[in-house]
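note to self: dont lose this again. the chain is below, predicted strucutre after it. 253 aa total, dont forget to put it in the shared folder this time
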Amino acid sequence: MKIDLTTLVYERVWFVLLFLVLIPPVGLVFLWLSYKFTAKSRLILTIIFGIWTLLWFVGLMSPKTQPQQTTTEQTVQQISPEDKAAADSAAANKAATDKIAADRAAANKAAGDKAAADKAATDKAATNKAATIEGAISATDRTKGSTISEATGKGGVPELVIDSTINDYSPKSSAYAVCYDACEALKNVPDLQNYGDIMFNFNGEYTMKDGTTQIMPVIRLRYTIEQINNFDFSSRNYVGFENIADVVKMDVK
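---
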């Protein structure tokens, strides 16, 4: 075999290609020193291995990840009995504290629920009471303490009787005001429709001929249920309400 001794080793094709792959910066120098490559082939190889050179440099500059060498002593922490006991005690204390907090929250919720239920029951009872004749009368300031009874009214229809007291010096307008407030409260009570009218008795002291005193009605006012149903109490028309009254008795001025 004939060996070419005139060509330097770095000018040979295989040598240049070897360095282009393994050490691209040196291989590029050998590429342009070798006469074995044409100008076109040098340009193409320079572009290709120029990119490879950049990647080669990036690989050299990147920090190498050192394999972590761990030992059993490094990965497994030995816990002393004292530390374990302290950790167990802390966990038990936290569990107890959490239970106390949870029990307190449950107790507060139960108390709140009971208070809400009691209030709802009280409100319902008050609403139910207000829907009765007795409840409406007792809820009205001017008729508190009045007594309620039934009688037979005009034409034999049932009559609701409300007895209140009045001072002998009170003007008759105060009696009409009491009737106004009472009828306004009673208007929305369903049981009122069972009666034909309401008789208001305002009782005071009467001096008899023998000098004794007796409690007797000094004012008696009657309102029919129809009058109450048709009257607009939101108007606060006390005079109009006074004019529709059936004055059975009026012994005051």
